[in-house]
Design a protein that fits this description.
disordered N terminus; 7-stranded mixed β-sheet; 25 strands; alpha/beta; single chain
Amino acid sequence: MSATNNDKRSFDKCSFDYIVVGAGTAGCLMANRLSADPNNRVLLIEAGGRDNYHWIHVPVGYLYCINNPRTDWLFKTEPDAGLNGRSLIYPRGKTLGGCSSINGMIYMRGQARDYDHWAEVVGCGEWRWENCLPDFKRHENHYRLDAEGHGDAAHRDFHGHGGEWRVEKQRLSWPVLDDVAAAAEEAGIPRTEDFNRGCNEGVAYFEVNQRNGWRWNTSKAFLRGALKRPNFTLWHSTQVNRLCFDTAGFNAGQDQPRCRGVEVVREGAVVEVAALKEVVLCAGAIGSPHLLQLSGVGPAAHLREQGIEVVHDLPGVGENLQDHLQIRSVYRVSKAKTLNAIASTLWGKAGIGWEYLMRRTGPMSMAPSQLGAFTRSSEAYAHPNLQYHVQPLSLEAFGQPLHPYPAITASVCNLNPSSRGRVRLKSRDPAAPPMIMPNYLSTEEDRQVAADSLRVTRRIMGQAAMAKYAPEEVKPGPQYQSDEELTRLAGDIGTTIFHPVGTTAMGRSSDPMAVVDARLRVHGISGLRIADAGIMPTITSGNTNSPTLMIAEKAARWILEASS
């Protein structure tokens, strides 16, 4: 189930055509595509270890991977005023497969309007929805097309088959969640059979990145085959300290700095590895701006404060951080089968384990959230601006025990937050964590959406389909009704849904805060691209893993075209 290092040569003073930094969601696909040409020598570098931890592969194992130093960087946010001074854990994958090894496995592309907006921002039609759809389909292996004839025309128009990235339906359902879906429909949210056709409005069970009841991460999908190629080298457990630049010509007034490679710590030695063509950053919306700043690329004043020599003043590096803040409403229910009750006894836990062992079904096969819904917080929005993740369980906070009573959790997030945060250095030490400041709920619009979203949750739970369960609002509590009260409670109970984007945003050269151009080349630096969630100018309307794969698919094609 794991990918391994296939490099047998000395690594000191070696060179490759391409160096890909980060073997996460984007990096695994990128390395696969670049090494498909046997003439390209490709090195993929990952700071984390192999993905051979068994809990990575059992779907419910995310519970044991998040906040675990074996698989998670253990980042924390700075105390956040919008969260009433609270700090949050901020999980980021630290293993082959990156966040695809610890995330919720939900396959979600977002809305067509997300990509059409990107195209307007960067002035490039290649980012429009109709031009992104082929890149989603290129690596997709969708279960709807498994049957002979590959499904109906509608499925073929929107989904791919035979690619590396497996998409399946979930292997369990819950009567109480079926009734939540019925209640959502009664509240005016239509049923849908596919969230991924450009408009995700509706309610349905999520589709997931699994294969036969196992998590399907990008290491399994894209590295297993690539590791057999003699022109592909993988270094895991290897820390990249900084990017290396040729600046002599630039300092003499010529051209611009060129990224010539990376400095790494490998097997206790600090060495420099050269990239003859390009370095591609795929370290994620936290890792990529952190590494750029450590390397002297970013806001000049901040870099000087940290004692780092400025290679290129690029003010947007680390700015524009966006994330989906989820607000978790908990409802106690009666006469309902929920995980709280099933997992409360040794016999129940044994039954869960036996079912998964024998059939790869049941609670151990489930994603963190099973039922999804997209709707509007108010009539002021012409498009769905809320996403629900509904779970047949409840707890006080992640990592704490399940409540001792039957309950469900309806988490809602603002899909298009206007709040913006940043990522900055805490230290010039590459091993030190970055400073992460999301600035949740820092705009009036976001605070209003938060209050309205809690009212939408109450409207759904108050429908006739839920009456037989006599749902009782435990969190935040029905006594809170005003905008002010609900916004404060949102700050008390809100938490990240782990979707940071935007910190190396693409934009036109005239935009002083843009970090990369429309083809993801870093402004003012040659030989360097970024292909991860950080390049999103605005966050997508849904989970961000699948859009990140699409970004890497496009970038790999452009890189190969540039070298042909």
